[in-house]
Amino acid sequence: MDSIATLTPAHAPGDDCAQDVAGVTMTIVGHPDPGRVGETAAVEFDARQRVPLSRREPLFAAAGQPGRPLEDPHLSRSPIYLSFKAGEMPVWTDPAHAPSEIRPLHGAQGRAWYVGLRRRVGLLIELGLRAAPPREQHGLVGVSAATARLREQIEATAGSELPVLLSGETGTGKELAAQAIHALGRRRQQPLVAVNLSAIPDSTAASQLFGHARGAFTDAARAHDGYFLQADGGTLFLDEIGDASIGLQVQLLRALEQREIQPVGGRVRAVDVRLITATDADLDDAVAAGRFRKALLFRLCGQTLKLLPLRDRPADIAVQLVHFLDRALDGLGRREHLRLRSWTDSPWLDLEAVEAALNARWPGNSRELRAVASQAALLGANQPKIVLATSSPPAPASASRSTSAVANAAAEEPARALTESAIRATLAAHQHSVRGAARALQVAPNTLYARMRELGIPLAGALSDEELAAAHEASGGNVTMMARALGVSLRGIQRRLGRAR
Ligand SMILES: Nc1ncnc2c1ncn2[C@@H]1O[C@H](COP(=O)(O)OP(=O)(O)OP(=O)(O)O)[C@@H](O)[C@H]1O
């Protein structure tokens, strides 16, 4: 049986009757050729509620590509069958020839399983038939049904002018989603200004957001346009909206309802801004506790997009793992690690590492996965196989919440657009010089250092001797390459090397 062309949507979680389902969707999560991770096959059940698996069938395909079989010669040529019964784990019809284990997946409510084939190929099997989504679209990497749905919601949202509220744990991609909504909407030629409210102290929040007139307060030697005016005609992305003080919430409500703002000590001004907000907190709880104004929440959630934790999107874990490894290996000039070596050699990215990633909890979600993948690429660049340190310490309650260090530093000087992407883009534009980026972002270097530590953005001074040694070995001692691979400045790495000697 081959992949089929006519598809019915995968059922919503909670429908647990396999008899109602026409078949399953299989996604490759581990393969000797890592380039195949993310390919899917939608396979109809036969008359006995079974699907065949072999080296030759079904055919797996990336979106828009022709289908290919699994090919691995370690798998049998003749099919073995997985049999499905409502409410039960699937079973091999011939257990004596079973190619290996089947395990239920975390959070899948009896509708998805991991199947390992001869410790060579890993498959995710979900009830329901669905088409293969692109591995990367609108800047979002992933092939899970949740990511496909999120992209559809982003497209639908981009066409409207309503405010959008993005909710999800830290690192799930809320800022990426905001960027995609802006990039697809009619305001795309206008600015997108991203601001993290948790990085702005209450005392200066009004003047930073709404601006101030010259002489409005002691230090206001010049008039200042706030973020709202900087985003005029475009989009303002307010991250950590749950951290806005009640006073600020009142002003935000006014800006939304009357489309005007009042700079501190200045005249009321009209402003045309599409607002996208994000939170990892439960704002309904915050309303119940009197910390968030119901009227503002009502206004903000014109459209609400929920981003699932990464651990509930196993197909995305595998695809993002390969994506982040590829990027890190590219920096080291070692992308060949992610190509099929030969069917006889064991792959650099083996199934053990993939399974470890699928089983990890990823409290810091994709941000944590990216950091773990970058470190694994570095440490494993000269090794026969990757070792994935998935036991990375859980992210703090929220990796993007302000720490007292950030709050204190921010209090010294206005913090500007301190979101992860803004910092990374500015660093890249300044050869990773933190001082240069801090100047461009108009923040004190200490504010930027603290925020970078908080977001897990690499700093040369914080690199361990082990990381340094691995990068040194992987780059053959080329310091420029080391700096590129580690994502830090050349000067920083030279200083750090001096210290290490
Ligand atoms: N679907 C995805 N595809 C590729 N990269 C992703 C995806 N989701 C998140 N990331 C990466 O993870 C990191 C964190 O993403 P982002 O800043 O958008 O998350 P967030 O939910 O806004 O986090 P926070 O709440 O902490 O601000 C970024 O480097 C981003 O590129």
UniProtKB/TrEMBL annotation:
Pfam families: Sigma54_activat. It comes from the Bacteria. The keyword ATP-binding applies. Coiled coil: none annotated. Keywords: ATP-binding, Nucleotide-binding. Gene3D superfamilies: 1.10.8.60, Homeodomain-like (1.10.10.60), P-loop containing nucleotide triphosphate hydrolases (3.40.50.300). Residues 140-378 form the Sigma-54 factor interaction domain. SUPFAM superfamilies: Homeodomain-like (SSF46689), P-loop containing nucleoside triphosphate hydrolases (SSF52540). This is Sigma 54-interacting transcriptional regulator. It comes from Nannocystis punicea.
